[in-house]
# Entry
Amino acid sequence: MASISHGVAANLSSLKGGDFLSSSDFTSEQIYALFELAKQLKQGDRRIDLGNRVLGLIFTKASTRTRVSFQVAMARLGGQIVDLNPNVTQLGRGEPLQDTARVLSRFCDALAVRTFEQKELEDYADWASIPVINALTDLEHPCQALADYFTIKESFGNLSGLTLAYVGDGNNVANSLMICGSLLGVNVRIAAPSGFEPLPEIVSKARSLATYGANVEISNNPQDAVIGASAIYTDVWASMGQEEEQSSRSKAFGGFCVDEVLLSLANPDAIVLHCLPAHRGEEISPEVMESESSRIFDQAENRLHLQQALLAALLGGV
Ligand code: CP
Ligand code: NVA
# Structure
């Protein structure tokens, strides 16, 4: 079994009992400590048994990766999940969140919440006495960003000074990528169609957290954004909850497909990332999806390792 340095252990311990609602909740040192633990877990160099802990999943939107990776992560930590889908709990019949959060805190050891409004997630955190994790809201997807930067680090060894170009909608995934990237010293360029740029307050927040001189640039030009980039990232044009905008967005996002021509403008060793699910032929071409530059399925796997490390730290198992 691999050991962990005193500094890494101290940063992991500092996360015990806390929430993870935004990529801005952790320092770069805490994130790098999670990367170190996740690497050991992934390589099989470390085993952590939390002893029968229970994670409640409150998901009001669909999920494959996040749901299954949390479930498998808890199983590997010797614990389990309970599915608290609002359709089968009293939440769906109007039981107030403040009562639900306090009752679940008596049964569970942590909650992972996937919902629409960030405010609802924050209300869970306010009323629960156990760690609350953002499993995706309309504003952020911080667990995704942890796995994404870990995947880039696996490819390049270090992160600071690299450039990530995100081509597409200025959405929840883009927001967490900006904040987390800035914290880790990665230059983040967002190229979105006019009217679909990220919220100015999130851009300002990301810039205010930058380390190692990282910068955040927003443009409407995918070609300019990818020149000199080590990673090209994209996500769906219409997120969950925006399905009725799918056809109008398809028109607005013309020219924002990550295809082989766009990829050829990036660094020769650039990697391609996508949080999935993907719409081939829209935000990404089938060729790029299956190309040698794609790390998309490593990225999906890394959700498991990062969330296992996160749960171990929040639940005090390290
Ligand atoms: N990337 C991601 O969060 O996927 P799911 O919606 O399947 O959980
Ligand atoms: N932006 C997408 C991400 C899905 C993982 C959505 O919110 O639907």
Q: What stands out?
A: The domain at 6-137+303-314 is CATH 3.40.50.1370 (Rossmann fold).
